[in-house]
Amino acid sequence: MISSLRMAGIFILLTTLALAGCSTESPKEEKTTLRFVGWSFNNPEAWEAIFNAFEEAHPDIRLVREITPHSSTQFHALLSQKLRNQDSSMDVFLMDVIWPSEFAAAGWALPLDNFFSDEERQKFLDVPILANTYQDKIYGVPLFIDSGLLYYRKDLLEKYGFSPPGTWEELVQQAESIRDGEQSAHPGLHGYSGQFKQYEGLICDMLEFVHSNEGSFLDSEGGRALIDSPQAVEAVQFVRDQIIGGLAPRGVLTYQEPESLALFSQGNAVFHRNWPYAWAIVNDPERSQVVEKVGVAKLPHFPGGRSVSTLGGWQLAVSRFSKQPEVAWKFVSFVTSPTMQKVLALQAGRAPTRKALYEDPEVLAANPHFRDLFDIFLTAHPRPRTPLYPQVTNTLQAYFSAALSDPESDIPALSQRVREDLDRILAPSQGERSD
Ligand code: GLC
User: Fold this and answer.
1) What whole-number distance in Å separates Cα of residue 357 and Cα of residue 353?
2) 379 - beta bridge partners?
3) Is 132 exposed, middle or buried (0-12, 13-18, 19+ CB in 10 A)?
4) What residues contact residue 166 under an 8 Å CB cut-off, 6+ apart?
C-alpha cells in the first residue's frame, strides 16, 4: 500500500517539476538566498522532495535550510534566541501551534494579512486559523494539523474479543488481559506507550487525560489556574498509578514521540498515543513489525467525561526581521499549497489543514482515519493561548514530571503549589490575553 502511495506522491511531484520547467529562467541573474529554519521531520524524504520542488519552481531562489533536532521544546529555544537577536538571515520558520500569541506579542512574527487573504483562509480548517490569529491579525499559515489519536493492535484486540476502549478504565482492563494472555508468547509486550518525558509532548498527553475527566489547566478566560481541581488531580493520579506504574514501561518517562512510536511499531505495546503521522510509519514495512495490524480510534475518556484530543500542528511564519518578506511568502504559499499538503499526506501521513483534501480519494485511501475520525480534527482542543505560554508550559511540565516519576508524590499538595505559581505567572497578563 505504502509503495503505491509513494508512487502517487512522486507522480504529483514530477508534474509540479514539469510545470516548473515551463517557467522562464534567467540563469545569468544572481540568485536570492532564502533561509528556512525548521526541525528534523519524521519523513525527511517527503520534505526534501518539497524543498527540491520549490527550488525547481523558483530557479531564481537558492533555498538554505537549517534543520534542528526533533523536539518542539528544543526548537523553541533555538528559534527564540535567533528572534531575540533580531537575526535577519532567517526568513521563514516553522512555528508550533502554541507559539503565535507569544511570537506576535514579542514582535517576532510578521503579520501576514497582506499576503494571506480572507478568501484563502476560508479554505483552511477553522481551528488552526484561530490558533494563528492574535488580536485580529494572522501570523502563520497552517501546514498540517495534529491531534492526539489512539493507535491499537487490531489483531490482538480481535483475538481477545475487544472493541477499541471507550474509557481509560476499559483500556487498562483490555491491556492487562492481553498482556497476561500473551505473556508466554511475548513476555516483552507492554500495555501502553505515550510521551511522558519533561517537554512539550508531556503537556499534550496530560491535557487529554485531564480534560477527558472534565478538568482543565486554566479557566476559560485563561486568567486562573484550575490544575488543583479534584478532576485534574484524579486524572494525574490515574496516569501515575495505572499508566506509568502499570501498563507502560518506566522508560516512557524519557520518551518523546519517536521512542514511544518505536516501542509500538516494533510490536511491543498494545496501545499507543500519537499524532496522525504515526499511521504512515506503522504501515511501512521498512520501519514497522505491525504493518496492517493497527487500528486508529478516538482517545478514551473517564466515566462521565468525553474524549479529548490536543490540538497540535505546524505553521509557516515569516520573521519580522527578514529583509525579503515577499520572497519568504513565495516559499510559504508554495509549501502550504494543496499540491504540497497532498504530498505530505500521501508520503508522510500528515493531516492537511486545507479542508478540500479531506475529500480527496487518494488522501483518504492512504489515511482512512482522516474520514472516519474527521471530527477529531474539527474539535481538537488547544493548549492555553497566551503570550505567557513558555512560562505556563515550563511550570506544568515540571509539575507533571515530578508527579508522575515519583510513585510516592503527594499530587494534591504539588498541584496546589503549581496552581499558585501559575496564578502568579498569569496575574500581570490580564490585559494581554488574546481570547
Ligand atoms: C507535535 C505537535 C506540536 C506539539 C509537539 C509536542 O509536533 O504538532 O503541536 O507541541 O508534537 O511534542
Assistant:
1) 8
2) none
3) buried
4) 300, 301
- Is the Cβ atom of 196 under 6 angstroms away from ligand 1? no
- Residue-wise pLDDT tens digits, 316-373: 999 999 999 999 999 999 999 999 999 999 999 999 999 999 999 999 999 999 999 9
Supply the pLDDT for residue 19: 47
Q: Is 402 exposed, middle or buried (0-12, 13-18, 19+ CB in 10 A)?
A: middle
- Per-residue cell: 393: 508550559
38 close to ligand 1 (CB < 6 Angstrom): no
Specify the 3-state DSSP secondary structure of 312.
strand
C-beta of 205 in contact with ligand 1 (< 6 A): no
Amino acid at 279: W
Half-sphere exposure of 296 (CA within 13 A, CB side): 22
Convert the pLDDT of each residue in 270-328 to its tens digit.
999 999 999 999 999 999 999 999 999 999 999 999 999 999 999 999 999 999 999 99
Cell 499576503, located at residue: 115
Q: Determine if ligand 1 sits within 6 Å of the CB of residue 100.
A: no
Task: Locate 204 and state its grid cell.
Answer: 499534550
Q: Which amino acid is at 231?
A: Q
C-alpha cell at 8: 502517487
Burial class (CB within 10 angstroms; exposed 0-12, middle 13-18, buried 19+) of 81: exposed
Q: How far is CA 432 from CA 102, 121, 221, 224, in A?
A: 10, 25, 12, 14
- Reported as a single tens digit per residue, the pLDDT across 202-217 is 999 999 999 999 999 9
- Residue 97 Cα, ligand 1 centroid: separation in angstroms? 8
What grid cell was written down for 400? 507533571
Closest approach atom of ligand 1 to CA 256? 12
Residue whose CA is at the smallest distance from ligand 1 atom 12: 201
Handedness of CA 389, 392, 395, 398 (dihedral sign): negative
Ligand 1 touching residue 202 (CB < 6 A)? no
Cell of 203: 503537556
pLDDT > 70: percent of the chain: 91
CA of 124 to the centre of ligand 1 (A): 19
The residue-averaged pLDDT of 375-400 equals 96
List b or e across 180-199, with b for residues whose CB sees 16 or more CB atoms inside 10 angstroms. Answer: eebeeeeeebbbbbbbbbbb
Query: What atom in ligand 1 is closest to the CA of residue 310?
Result: 9
Nearest to 299 by CA among 149, 99, 92, 432: 149
Distance CA 38, CA 51 (A): 12
